[in-house]
Amino acid sequence: MIFTSGWPKILSEPPDSHHRDMREYSQPGASSVYSWRLKSICLTGLFLVLLHLPLVNALSQEHTIKFATIAPEGSTWMNVMRAYDAAIRKESGGRLGFKIYPGGVQGEDKDVIKKIRIGQLHCAGFTGVGLGEIAPKVRILDSPFLFEKSEEVDHVYQKLQTEFEEAFLDGGYVLLGWAEVGFVYVFTNTPVRTVADMNGVKMWMWEGDPVAEATFKTFGINPIPLSVVDVLTSLQTGLINGAYVSPYAAVALQWHTRVKYMMGVPLADACGAVVISLKKFEALPADLREILLRNGEKFMRELTLKSRQENTAAITTLKKSGISVIEVSSKKTIEEYNRLGKKARQALVGRLYDEKFLARVEGEIQSFRAKDASK
Question: Cα–Cα distance between 5 and 104 in angstroms, integer?
Answer without folding.
Answer: 55
